[in-house]
Amino acid sequence: MVMEEVRIMRYFGGCDAGSTYTKCVIIDENSKIVASVTNRSRINPVLSAEAALNEAVAQVKGLHSVKDLAYLVGTGYGRNKVPFADENISEISCHAMGVHMANPNVHAVIDIGGQDVKGIAIDMDGTVLNFAMNDKCAAGTGRFFESMANAFEMSLEEFSKLSLKAKNVIPITAQCTVFAESEVVSLVGEGKPMEEIAAGIQLSVAKRCFVMAKKAGATDSVALTGGCAKNEGLKQAIEKVLKIKVVDLPIDPQLMGALGAAEYAKRKVHV
């Protein structure tokens, strides 16, 4: 009697240790997402990555620990701190690959991270053609939006929808987060309509994104990645400023870096 060999499915992990959120994705040999986690980052990136990885592993039948992954790639701000990672790859490469896996027809990305804004041009195979980055100032980043939402005494979700009600836009002239917050507080104190101030904030960020997108060569359409991609007011402002379509991705845009890292992990093992 010949015993049939039972083939065990292998799994591949990507952990995007961002400055504000830590994301983890596990895929199988067919590049199908079998687990995903998004957690607020702690002050210690090792603990953040460890917690996200353990949560993701717990979602997959057949995996008992992070060490059971066939290959693990770390990416993001704290990519060097991801425990048990076999390798780390830049978030620019991982976001490009993640978007390519989600929608191979998208060739330009604006990634709005917690601390920077990036414009990325993607080649036909998911690799990076070109990129531009603004990491000198927090204005227009995830932390900037959190700061603005706090000034409005709102949740991020409430703030992101506020500008959609605006009939006019009140321009925000300050480029710095600290000064912009002071300007917003003054405008609110003057009794200006809050939705019009919010529209001004979204527009100022969209203009920053415009520079990054043009440097990356966006021409007909662009996808947004990072947590700010869920900001409907920003999405509309970018479409208005760039005069191109913002493509909605079929997978959570906040997971793109982790998904790209997981796909790179899979390719390292030659399934």
Low-pLDDT stretches are none
Q: What is the CATH third-level topology name of the largest domain?
A: Nucleotidyltransferase, domain 5
- Spell out the helices and strands N to C: EEEHEEHEEEHHHHEHEH
- Any idea how many domains? 2
CATH architecture of the largest domain: 2-Layer Sandwich
Q: Which key terms come to mind for this protein?
A:
five-stranded mixed β-sheet, single chain, alpha/beta, 271 residues, 38% helix, Nucleotidyltransferase, domain 5
What's the structural blueprint in terms of helices and strands?
Elements lengths: L11 E6 L3 E7 L5 E8 L4 H14 L12 E5 L11 E2 L2 H12 L5 E5 L4 E6 L5 E7 L7 H10 L4 H7 L14 H13 L4 H22 L5 E5 L6 H11 L2 E3 L8 H13 L3
Parallel strand pairs: 1-4, 4-5, 6-9, 9-10
Antiparallel strand pairs: 1-2, 2-3, 6-7, 7-8
Helix pairs in contact: 2-8, 3-4, 3-5, 6-7
Characterization of this structure:
The chain is α/β, with parallel strands linked by helices and 271 residues long. The chain folds into 2 domains: 12-103 and 254-268, ATPase, nucleotide binding domain (Nucleotidyltransferase, domain 5, 2-Layer Sandwich); 110-248, ATPase, nucleotide binding domain (Nucleotidyltransferase, domain 5), CATH 3.30.420.40. It is 38% helix and 20% strand. It contains 8 helices and 10 strands. It has helices at 45-58, 91-102, 142-151, 156-162, 177-189, 194-215, 232-242, 256-268, and strands spanning 12-17, 21-27, 33-40, 71-75, 87-88, 108-112, 117-122, 128-134, 221-225, 245-247. The protein has a 5-stranded mixed beta sheet with strand order 3-2-1-4-5. It has a 5-stranded mixed beta sheet with strand order 8-7-6-9-10, with helices on both faces. The longest helix has 22 residues, at 194-215. It starts with 11 loop residues before the first strand and ends with a helix.
